[in-house]
Amino acid sequence: MVLNELARWRETVQGAVIEPGDQRFASATRPWSLTVEQRPVAVVVAADVEDVAATVGFAARQGRQVAVQATGHGAIDSLDGAILLRTGALRGVTVDPSRRRARLGPGVSWRDVQRACAPHGLSGLTGTAPGVGATGYTLTGGLGLLARRHGLAAHRLMAAELVTGDGRRLSVDRDRYPDLWCALRGGGTPPGVVTEIEIELVPAPVLCAGQLIWSAESAPELFGAFRSWTSTLPDEMTTTLGVQQVPSLPSVPEPLRGRRVVTLTVAHLGEEEETRRLLRPLLDLAQPLSDTLVPRKPDDLDVAGVPTDPAPTRARTELLTDLPDAALDVLTDLGPDAGPLMLTEIRHLGGALTRSAATSTPMNRVEGEFLLETVGLLFREEDFGALAIEQARIHDAVRQVATGRTLRSFANAGDRDAERFFSTEALALLNDVARRYDPGAVIHNPTAG
After folding, report:
1. What residues have CB less than 8 Å from 274, skipping those under 6 apart?
2. Cα separation, 128 vs 428, whole angstroms
3. pLDDT digit string (tens) for 301-349?
4. The FAD-binding PCMH-type domain covers which part of the protein (predicted)?
5. For residue 182, what pLDDT is reported?
6. How far is Cα of residue 100 from the mean position of the Cα atoms in its chain?
7. pLDDT of residue 215
8. What is the mean pLDDT of the segment spanning 6-21?
């Protein structure tokens, strides 16, 4: 980088500019998934929108790219040669209960959103991990706890403020730059740095949620019943069934520590009595070891026990049209030979997810009834190969019912093929928008089509 230009840029930025050699560099480049090593040429911790604009302009003049992260949950590649722009400090939240809208800075987590919305009996379409950034989650689709009733979070994106790759500051909504607004609603990495979004909130006056845990011996019966049971559920109930290896940690309760278990995560827009009535077919099969199902407020939705600290994880996902009987044995087999594989789970989709959005988006509807996800913990170099073998074994078992696609929200290291996320028509839209607002490809997009 040209020294004079670099000096002027550093003087302009109100936040921090962190370069290799700085003792802060390692922590500033560390993503949530510790299996991804990021090697940018510099990190900017933006203090305000002016820092964002200055960084985009500097990168364009230097012929470099800008990669944007708030919490680092979406990191999937090395960022070689790019400038990493951290927006986690931009954490403003404003709720307008009369309009059922909230305006969010890019550093706002779902925990922040829900705390602001709960006093008004409202909720955003949060996911299972409260620490995830709400903006990045929404821009990439957002499959949440209330998805079967309310659809993807991206479809509730009503407006946005951003600095485009070509340096413009735009206010975007249905009427202003409608092509860009459409692309933002689930298209993944936008052709600019989003500095604020406005989302539509949903009413959540009555909510029952929690997690049921059984011993692994009950897996065949529970998974065998899951497909037919889910076909009877109303859209108001969203569930995920999984087989998990619980770590042997002091923080884990003794009855579960170190065990293989079956978990059912439940979120239901209804009273507890009705929730348990709907769950009765599964509860009659086996007695749970643990049951945290209770009425909850929108700011109390940390029900799945998702880890909050960075971890060396790697996941693989697949949209499925069905759950074939032939695959159930493989799906429930998390035995002693599973190696680094710690979780196999099936998310029930359908409902509002399979109905087209009212306005065009890159993912108008989710083409699949279930989402398979396999997750591993990788502490040693040899774990990478062992996990790949285990994941291939499981995903091969459902090949006949796999759509060949997954959701952009679940992109992981190795997921670089945009056709895995979007249709040909959606990719044409996204590529056209990128050429129009970021012709120099200043914004780094790891899954560009």
Report:
1. 208, 268
2. 31
3. 888 877 778 888 899 999 999 998 878 878 877 655 668 999 999 999 9
4. 36-204
5. 95
6. 23
7. 93
8. 90
pLDDT at 308 (0 to 100): 76
Residue 275 predicted with pLDDT over 70 = yes
Contact 101, 200 (CB under 8 A): yes
What mean pLDDT comes out for the span 352-362?
Answer: 81
Q: According to the model, what pLDDT value does residue 127 have?
A: 87
Q: Indicate the CATH number of 207-410 among 3.40.1160.10, 3.10.450.50, 3.30.980.10, 3.40.462.20.
A: 3.40.462.20
d(CA 341, CA 242): 12
Contact yes or no for 105/285 (Cβ under 8 A): no
The two tokens of residue 47 are 């203090």
Q: Which fold has domain 3-86?
A: 3.30.43
* Cα angle 165-155-69, degrees, rounded to a multiple of 5: 40
The predicted-structure confidence for 156-167, as pLDDT tens digits, reads as follows: 999 999 999 999
Give the integer Cα–Cα distance in Å for 311 and 402: 28
Q: Where does the chain hold its CATH 3.30.465.10 domain(s)?
A: 93-203+421-437
* Residue carrying structure tokens 């049921």: 212
Closest CA to 150 of 76, 100, 192: 100
Helices 49-62 and 3-12: angle between axes, nearest 10 degrees: 170
- Give the position of tokens 């959701």: 407
Contacts of residue 264, Cβ cutoff 8 Å, sequence gap at least 6: 211, 212, 213, 214, 222, 239, 240, 241, 242, 279, 282
Please report the pLDDT score of residue 357 as a whole number: 72
Instruction: Take residue 40 and report the two structure tokens written for it.
Output: 């940018």
Instruction: Tokens for 395, please give them.
Output: 């995903």
* Nearest CA-CA partner of 150 in 175, 125, 127, 170: 125
Q: Are 191 and 165 in contact (CB under 8 A)?
A: yes
